[in-house]
Amino acid sequence: MSGPVLATEGLSKGFISGGQRLPVLSGLTLGVLPGESLAVVGRSGSGKSTLLNLLCGLQRADEGVITVAGESFDSSGNRGFATRWAELRRRSIGVVFQDANLMPALSLVENVRLRTHLAGLTGGDERDWLERLGVGAEADRYPDQVSGGQAQRAALAMVFAMSPALILADEPTGSLDRHTADEVAECLFDMQANNGCALVLATHDRELAGRCDHLLDLSGTH
Q1: pTM of the full structure
Q2: How many other CB atoms are found less than 10 A from the CB of residue 144?
Q3: What is the per-residue DSSP string for 61-78?
């Protein structure tokens, strides 16, 4: 893909509280190229999670334009808005949460297989991705039978197995101890570099943010 995988122009979002509009994001413009990583930092309530929700279509901007993998969305919410975002998430956007967010009734490999199926892929390399992320031996175990770090590695396997153009990671190591967090972060950055996808990482961890190519500090931007 030529040009940015992700771009925003004049992106604004606010919420109503006590009859008043409280701005969260105001006029945000950014771009992330293939293979680049952007860390989003800021104090609690500064809009990190809100931004990621906007970037995957789970919330609608009040103003501005978002372009992901060549698809553009404005704030008007035209007919087909939700359907187009759902399709884009299915095939092009991988999302990593603070908690692994695995289906508890499925084994690790079945979770990965479900994600690749939803993306329209039938490569059959789900176990290989778990091996690459260091949890191949746990492939047939269920989420409640593995550690938090192993579950988060499986969540990364789900994301990379779908070959996304963009990864959105919201505090992906926030619930892990320091050692496990470092290991999971290493996996995330290594696989992102090898696959050449764009990464937007929201984090409170300044050390983790420092590993990204670019930094966006939302503190004091609204």
Answers
A1: 0.91
A2: 8
A3: -SEEEEEETTEEEETT--
